[in-house]
Structure to design on (490 residues):
């Protein structure tokens, strides 16, 4: 049984301050964007009218970018050249919050890939690289720097693109050091033999990579899985994690296998999907989640990435939003601190959803409250209910209130299916909270006018609107308290 609720919690709280060390082949992905209108008179090739150029960290650097975008600490270690691409790569990583440890190698270029696109269609790719071993002293410096950092990390990713960083010696030392410290090691392989990664926690080949390693056709998936299970035992892995494209992800253990289906989305570009998968897996395993939960979360993240063009990391808010769609939240998952709610709102906005906000004391929930909340939800995609804290209620209603504590009131409201989030505020009014969240619709009962609704002017200033919902006659908390008092006399 998977625990996506825990994944949501970790996403919103920074993965328990986890720090993932990524080691491997960093590169710079460059894109020329344009359109094709004719064929060249010089040769039978399309002429691309270039409109603009972009660049993004790729390879192991893109894995680190995914980790940072998901709210984790990430350090990436790799080789670069002494060139302009190295400067661009370093600046991009720093700007994204990644700690780049890039070792310059004389007479070697920074590995880069230049893609020419017309619309969403890739027309051509040019690779700039030198696939040779670096001088021995460069590898010694690499190992020295890794050993200084590995004890402070919660997971290690070996991102192997066969560009020369992860030779047998580097892999052996890193895996042994990390596993001795109890740190999980995940490998994205490019070697035809998985023996190079012996004793890693898991190796994450795609179906074609497993096929090459096993020497069997990828069409015979079950036979490949049999070989994969043998590799688990032979090479001392805890399990193999095989990405299957549109068929999802398979986890192979000695004597057993499970498969998680992919999340259906429109596919524009699969570039970087494997980087996203291993980043999510590493974060989940670093927080002691079961691999089945990690795989399910990784599937959701990969579905987001393939719907984009180019090597673009998944954003934390996007993943929270997608998981919110996949997870039937329990009541306790809807009661949020203000910082959590801000992130939840950002994730909903990333999905283009409309945010509705209402507030009140909600002391003794009654049919009038239910009616208002049901009708409020009809004005958008997500409904936030802000409730006055106990001290705030006492200031507004008097010493005998509230009847029900803020924690109980919040849980009861969160149990309603129309409510997506509940937050407690301690001020006398929710004005500061409204300004923080910037809802699209502000809802209050029909006993208010727009002029008397707190936050109305602010909401209208950013293009939102105020909605007043008629009250259900004859129902109020005060009347319920009075009725209960009379009944107690008799």
């Amino acid at each position: 049984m998977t625990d996506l609720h825990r994944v949501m919690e970790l996403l919103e709280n920074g993965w328990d301050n986890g720090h993932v060390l990524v080691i491997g082949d960093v590169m710079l992905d460059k894109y020329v964007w344009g359109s094709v209108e004719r064929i060249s008179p010089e040769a039978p090739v399309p002429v691309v009218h270039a409109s603009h150029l972009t660049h993004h960290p790729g390879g192991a650097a893109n894995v680190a970018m995914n980790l940072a975008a998901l709210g984790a600490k990430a350090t990436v270690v790799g080789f670069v050249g002494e060139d302009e691409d190295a400067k661009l790569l370093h600046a991009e990583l720093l700007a994204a919050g990644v700690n780049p440890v890039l070792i310059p190698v004389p007479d070697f270029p920074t590995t880069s890939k230049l893609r020419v696109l017309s619309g969403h269609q890739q027309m051509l790719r040019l690779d700039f690289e030198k696939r040779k071993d670096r001088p021995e002293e460069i590898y010694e410096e690499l190992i020295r720097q890794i050993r200084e950092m590995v004890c402070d990390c919660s997971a290690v990713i070996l991102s192997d693109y066969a560009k020369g960083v992860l030779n047998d010696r580097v892999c052996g030392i890193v895996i042994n050091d990390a596993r001795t410290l109890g740190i999980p090691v995940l490998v994205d392989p490019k070697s035809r033999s998985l023996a190079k990664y012996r004793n890693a926690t898991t190796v994450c080949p795609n179906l074609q990579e497993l096929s090459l390693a096993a020497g069997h056709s990828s069409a015979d998936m079950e036979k490949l899985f049999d070989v994969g299970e043998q590799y688990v035992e032979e090479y001392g892995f805890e399990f193999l994690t095989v990405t299957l494209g549109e068929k999802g992800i398979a986890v192979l253990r000695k004597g057993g296998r499970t498969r998680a289906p992919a999340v259906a989305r429109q596919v524009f570009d699969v570039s970087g999907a494997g980087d996203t998968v291993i980043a999510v897996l590493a974060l989940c395993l670093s927080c002691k989640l079961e691999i089945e939960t990690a795989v399910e979360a990784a599937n959701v993240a990969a579905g987001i990435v393939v719907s984009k063009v180019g090597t673009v990391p998944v954003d934390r808010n996007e993943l929270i939003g997608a998981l919110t769609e996949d997870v039937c939240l329990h009541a306790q998952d809807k009661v949020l601190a203000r910082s959590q709610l801000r992130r939840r709102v950002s994730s909903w906005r990333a999905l283009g959803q409309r945010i509705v906000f209402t507030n009140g004391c909600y002391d003794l929930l009654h049919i009038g409250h239910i009616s208002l909340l049901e009708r409020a939800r009809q004005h958008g995609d997500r409904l936030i209910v802000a409730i006055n804290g106990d001290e705030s209620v006492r200031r507004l209603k008097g010493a005998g209130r509230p009847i029900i504590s803020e924690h109980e009131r919040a849980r009861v409201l969160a149990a309603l299916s129309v409510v997506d989030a509940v937050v407690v505020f301690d001020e006398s009014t929710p004005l500061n909270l409204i300004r923080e969240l910037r809802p699209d619709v502000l809802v209050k009962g029909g006993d208010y006018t727009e002029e008397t609704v707190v936050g109305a002017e602010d909401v209208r200033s950013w293009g939102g609107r105020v909605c007043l919902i008629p009250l259900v006659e004859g129902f109020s908390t005060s009347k319920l308290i009075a009725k209960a008092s009379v009944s107690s006399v008799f």
Summary: The chain has a mean pLDDT of 89. The two ends are 52 Å apart (CA to CA). The chain has two domains: 4-326, 331-489.
